[in-house]
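job 3f2a | input accepted
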Amino acid sequence: MADKIRWGIIGTGGIAHHFARGLAVLADAQLVAVASRTKESADKFGEEFNVPHRHIGAEAIAADKEVDVIYVATPHPMHVSDTITSLNGGKAVLCEKPFAINICEVMQMVACAKKKKLFLMEAMWTYFLPAICEVRRLIAAGAIGEICLVQTTFCFRCPPDPQNRFLNPALGGGALLDVGVYEIAIAQMAYGREPVRISSMAHIGQTGVDEQESMIFGYDNGAMAVLTCAIRAQAVNEAAIYGTDGYIRILPNFWHSDRIIVKTGQSEEKEIKFEMVGNGYNYQAVEVMQCLRSGKTENSIMPLSTSIAMMKTMDRVRAQWGLTYPMEK
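job 3f2a | predicted structure (329 res):
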């Protein structure tokens, strides 16, 4: 593979901007193409980030021979089609979370990647941040003993406009797919498996999306996870992982934190701070490029099995509320 890996981005919204800024700090990455639904949007994005190739639609960027890997940054319901289109065009794919709307779509994406023997990964950028890498190392080393409880909160107040994507069921709006996915990712990372029991309660708002909810997960050894998320309330957002011999707190705003607090055994709490390079989105891009250079079709930190497990969990949660999206009917 060439010295620089050439990226394309489908979508020109906020998350696409964040990712483009993350790529800019990587000497071995080059953003060469962008695709949007309109020429105006692609051109505007292209001018901002000096992107030479500007396309209308996923098919066009998937056919671009100058692109090695595509980052899918479109709204949730488009992830499945944009990912499969990119894979069918011979491109490796990093797809924004949530990976898709439901497990059926996820399995279509996974099947296509395996058939094409191409790299595919969900863009759970949090997993690759230095702070979270250290959390994973501490858990694996048994620093806090056996994990017994995970607690997370991710709440914010979205704009009240019913057409806002957070409140729009046609775009997979609601707290679960947008922010609850981060909390489920922390529980999945801590335990390495799906819960065997789920109890949950949600408030479904006037537009038909989940505006706030609490979820309790139970595991086969008696361990638990207690997760709360919302798009209608402000909160102190952090994550804590409690074990038989200590705990780890990830704060503030655990999904992009640069510090953790660790207590092991009888020792005092210790705060560990981490230097962040770039805006944080670059760390997942580094992992993707390392996989591409080594010929891997999956990443060991965020394998497809983890994405499958997380989506199955979210489907089970939604089933308890009787919540479906328009594209599922």
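job 3f2a | The chain has two domains: 5-126+280-298, 130-275+310-328.
job 3f2a | closed
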